[in-house]
């Protein structure tokens, strides 16, 4: 679709590579967590963390199963 220059095999390889990362805090989450005035529970126990990572996992599953997302916008063509 013009969003990546990877072939299908390379795309699938990268998709599999990122799967374990979905279970780990993202850098911005760690930085925001550090700024909380009270850290009375672990980052991974925060409802916002749980919701975001659940959603990321669902999108990953869809992409793994379908190979794409429905209704992607057509990439803009740059004219020089």
In short:
The chain is mainly α and 80 residues long.
What do you see in this structure?
With 80 residues, the protein is mainly α. The protein contains 3 helices and no strands. 50% of the residues lie in helices and 0% in strands. It is elongated and about 50 Å long.
Shape: elongated
The total of helices stands at 3
Strand content: under 5%
Radius of gyration, rounded? Answer: 17 Å
Spans where pLDDT lies below 50 across 5 or more residues: none
Q: Cα distance, first to last residue?
A: 21 Å
Q: Which descriptors apply to this entry?
A:
80 residues; mainly alpha; 3 helices; elongated
Topology, please?
Blueprint: H1 8-18, H2 27-35, H3 47-66
């Amino acid at each position: 679709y013009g969003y990546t220059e990877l072939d299908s095999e390379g795309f699938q390889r990268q998709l599999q590579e990122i799967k374990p990362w979905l279970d780990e805090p993202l850098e911005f989450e760690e930085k925001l967590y550090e700024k909380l005035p009270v850290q009375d529970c672990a980052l991974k126990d925060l409802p916002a963390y749980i919701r975001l990572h659940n959603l990321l996992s669902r999108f990953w599953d869809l992409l793994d199963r379908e190979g794409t997302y429905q209704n992607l916008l057509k990439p803009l063509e740059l004219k020089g």
